[in-house]
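Hi V.,

You were right to ask for the full record rather than a summary. Here it is.
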Amino acid sequence: MRPLERQDSTPPRRFIAVSPDDGSAIDLGHPAFAALLSWLVPGLGQIYQGRRLKGLVFMVTILTAFLSGMWLGGGKVVYASWKPDEKRWAFLCQAGIGSAAIPAMIQSWRLGGSAREPLFASSFMAPPLSRGQAVTPAYAQRLAGNDPDLDAEDFQPLPPWQQFRPLPRGGVLDRRPADQLSLWHQRLGRFFDIGTLYTMLSGMLNLLVIYDAWSGPMRFSAEEDEKSRS
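Predicted structure:
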């Protein structure tokens, strides 16, 4: 006869928050996992916790603002760049939305690294090229064919790469913008800055959504609650 195995009667640990509206209990599930989900997609952590309406409101409002900014900025305003002459500080705010931060960081890492081209040779969320930057022939061909600001003459052979607008030789004056970012500003004008602002605000607002998924709804302290009732 086999001996009975000892069973652990300790209940699983639960994280409970209190609703500031009606005092009901809110099961936060695994708060760290919920916060990660809300970082990846605004409101997804709240949906995981069963707060579906709140999660959908967060998702629709923040993603609408973010995508509106992307549209206003011609799809060029979200990228990561830490070059000495072009640091994209706005990305620190935009990175509050993980589904935007992750592809932007991958594109920046690949274009600035040994690959010399973004993932799938796509310019989506890729940082702008600077003067003399070397890229793969495939990426140069893609930009020359699809980018309204560039053509084949903007790239010169630098085997095995293609070089973007290298410095002219023999004292020739090149009046063209020296980098791709200047071309974006020239074409988009103020809409580039407006789109950047929209995406920055979306990322910063999502930090509050992440906090809500981590610790539950914010509520007044006992003293403030007592004052509000009096």
